[in-house]
Design a protein that fits this description.
The complex is a heterodimer. By secondary structure, chain A is α/β, with parallel strands linked by helices. Chain A contains 17 helices and twelve strands. Chain B has a seven-stranded mixed beta sheet, with helices on both faces. The chains are: A alpha/beta, B alpha/beta.
């Protein structure tokens, strides 16, 4: 073994996926088993007490899922990862690990509608207050922090607003207050942006999107840097004795491994939002081509954006890769390879014209997802963000005429043809 | 455990490959400062090193105990019935040079100073006598990094290897 720093493409194919020790299988096998036999009663007791690493039950750990977790941790540059059933459960587990009744966290308002509702309604019902700020200004985060604040949160590319936060600035605020910065990196993937390199402590992905990349499997994942000081006194659940594990203390026993160990052995154990082994296998297949797919997604997206920006029936285009975007400089800084493949635009004629445009598309699929190999379209105000009030829609950057595209890997001529014919059909 | 790694002149922290090589070469380990409290890291590490995951010959040193895990517990390193290959230390920072001197005196070949601990003085004492040093690392975590344990907890081992061999020790 050498102390080599393996490249991103190599790690996309190999990290966490050594040949199976029992059979020599080169691909990661699907261990479709709920449970795993103990060596003996002592082995069982040691595993239950966390004194020994092992595989007990797929709700907590599974060899196929472990391969997925280590691969994401490696690509993200984190110390470790915990996989979950979906991106939403990754967010819930993280919030549940960090905050309890009476606590709060400070978050951007420019979020996926489902996340906004989770934070505002469901966590609110548990007594955890989400403090929404307008925009992503570091000072706005700082102003909302108090003694009961447990973390700061934002999406690296806001869905669907396309906003890009000043990661370095927010990370500085987080550090000054001894708070972890939690970033949702779903739209960028670890290939386009690794938030931990800019001071983030925890990164969440909906792996359902570009990581899996084929629109066939749900999954989520939480990674942690291993660099955050959980011993400051602000996080008693990291430093107090844990009754269900014989009084151990996560921070003292596991050090830099404490957060991921707690997330797995408490939140995943208790909440039960585990990934399925088959999904882990399918998501791993996706990761193997992640760098190649993201380059192709971004290349197609740039061409589509330019096409729409010049189109006579299009009123506006919002993509951080456009020089006219207020986020152009931040995109260049944090995502030099390009700010992803999801963006929004408005069809001239407003909401009604937008609906007719979507119904006229032949190749592009109208559905509630992004990050498929196929090109996707949706009208957020009536679908993904319909749970929000008009006021929340505006603060989340969603306008009534907004159409969201997630550009896929089809021939660029075919994507452009479909957009053009549908735009013309609106006029007929 | 963000502690400062004050440089030790003439020494660099062992690389992943060197840590693995040390763990493979080591057969016996004396744990200095072992606790009977199952929630303490030293107790965790002892259980792991004796168990089927690792299978080392383990000796225990703690002057306030006579027995632990149904085995004798010795007051000092000198009192051990044989010389361990490695001395693994769970003690306060200011005690580390004392333990380093004792490790040198009995002829141990390596001194492993646990996670959250760092002592330039202890390291220098060991290195001057040719005793290998690891500091601010957990031996359980490092063993698990190379033998599948960390992988089974979702951590990045940094290991990429297409050979089938699985190391036992």
């Amino acid at each position: 073994m050498t102390e080599r720093n393996w490249g991103f493409r190599t790690r996309s194919l190999h990290a966490g996926g050594r040949p199976d020790s029992a059979t020599g299988a080169r691909a990661v096998p699907i261990y479709q088993s709920t449970s795993f036999v103990f060596e003996d009663t002592e082995d069982a007791a040691d595993q239950f007490a966390l004194q020994k690493f092992g595989t007990i039950y797929t709700r907590i750990s599974n060899p196929t899922i472990n391969a997925f977790e280590e691969r994401i941790a490696s690509l993200e540059g984190g110390i470790g990862s915990v996989a979950t059933a979906s991106g939403m459960s990754a967010e819930f587990l993280t919030a549940a690990a960090l905050a309890g009744s009476g606590d709060n966290f400070v978050t951007s308002s420019a979020l996926y509608g489902g996340t906004h509702t989770l934070f505002d309604v469901t966590l609110g019902r548990f007594g955890v207050e989400a403090r929404f700020i307008n925009g992503d200004e570091p000072e706005a985060y700082a102003r909302s922090i108090d003694a009961k604040t447990k973390f700061l949160y934002t999406e690296i590319i806001g869905n669907p607003s396309g906003s890009i936060p000043d990661l370095d600035g927010i990370a500085e605020v987080a550090r000054a207050h001894n708070l972890p910065l939690v970033i949702d990196g779903t739209f960028s993937t670890p290939y386009l942006c690794r938030p931990m390199e800019h001071g983030a402590d925890i990164v969440i992905h909906s792996a359902t999107k570009f990581i899996g990349g084929h629109g066939n499997s749900l999954g989520g994942v939480v990674s942690e840097s291993g660099k955050f000081d959980w011993g400051s006194g602000r996080f008693p659940s990291m430093t107090d004795p844990v009754a269900s594990y014989n009084g151990l203390n996560f921070w003292e026993n596991f050090g830099e491994y404490a957060f991921c160990t707690k997330l797995r052995s408490e939140q995943l154990r208790d909440i039960g939002a585990a990934m399925s082994p088959t999904n882990a296998f399918l998501l791993l297949q996706g990761i193997e081509t992640l760098p190649f797919r993201m380059d192709a997604h971004v290349a197609n997206t740039k061409l589509v954006v330019d096409f729409l920006d010049d189109h006579e029936f299009v009123s506006w285009v919002n993509y951080a890769g456009l020089q006219s975007s207020p986020y152009f400089d931040l995109a260049q800084k944090y995502m030099p390879r390009g700010p992803g493949a999801v963006f929004t635009f408005g069809v001239k004629g407003g909401r009604e014209a937008g609906a007719r445009f979507i119904e006229s598309l032949q190749l592009i699929s109208h559905l509630a997802n992004v990050g498929d190999a196929r090109t996707l379209v949706i009208h957020p105000a009536s679908t993904t963000h319909q749970q929000l009030s008009d006021e929340n829609l505006v603060s989340g950057g969603v306008t009534p005429d907004m159409i969201r595209l997630s550009i896929g890997l089809e021939d660029i001529e075919d994507i452009l043809w479909d957009l053009d014919q549908a735009l013309h059909r609106v006029r007929r | 455990m963000a502690i400062t790694h004050v440089p030790v002149p003439g020494w660099s922290e062992p690389t992943a490959a060197q840590r693995l090589e040390l763990l493979e070469r080591t057969r016996s380990i004396a744990i200095v400062g072992v606790s009977t409290n199952p929630a303490r890291p030293s107790n965790f590490v002892a259980t792991y090193l004796m168990g089927s995951s690792a299978d080392y010959e383990v000796f225990f040193v703690n002057p306030s105990l006579t027995e632990i895990f149904d085995q004798p517990c010795y007051p000092t390193l000198e009192a051990l019935p044989k010389t361990p290959d490695m001395v693994d230390v769970f003690r306060k920072s200011k005690d580390l040079p004392i333990v380093a001197n004792e490790a040198v005196a009995i002829g141990a070949s390596s001194l492993w100073i646990q996670l959250g601990l760092w002592s330039v003085e202890a390291a220098q004492i060991a290195l001057e006598s040719g005793v290998e040093v690891v500091m601010d690392r957990c031996i359980k975590i490092e063993h698990a990094r190379f033998h599948g344990g960390l992988h089974r907890a979702g951590f990045d081992t940094g290991v990429i290897d297409s050979r089938r061999k699985m190391n036992k020790r």
